[in-house]
Design a protein that fits this description.
mainly alpha, about 90 residues, 3 helices, flat
Length: about 90
């Protein structure tokens, strides 16, 4: 029995691609349902809400506009110690 390898490889690649897409979809759906459940049971009773957002949206949401030249979050050097007072002042304005 002499089976050409190319069709088998193509079929395997197709199955792998579909599997990857389904896995990503399931992860997205589970994360969304978990956030809805968490907001309803944990955060809403306290008048709060949790959101998943990109770093850029999060920075705008908390009022942090310190970016480097590429628009990335500007962090202090690791050797510099930052007090919680400084962080709290940055978040409250």
């Amino acid at each position: 029995m002499n089976v050409p390898i190319l069709p088998v490889q193509a079929a395997g690649a197709g199955v792998q691609a579909i599997s990857g897409l389904l896995s990503a979809g399931i992860s997205f759906t589970r994360a969304r349902k978990y956030m809805q459940m968490s907001n309803a049971t944990i955060f809403a009773p306290r008048g709060l809400a949790a959101n998943i957002m990109s770093t850029k949206k999060m920075m705008n949401s908390v009022g942090c506009h310190e970016n480097n030249q590429k628009g990335k979050l500007k962090l202090p050097p690791l050797s510099k110690e930052v007090s919680t007072e400084t962080v709290g002042n940055n978040l409250t304005g």
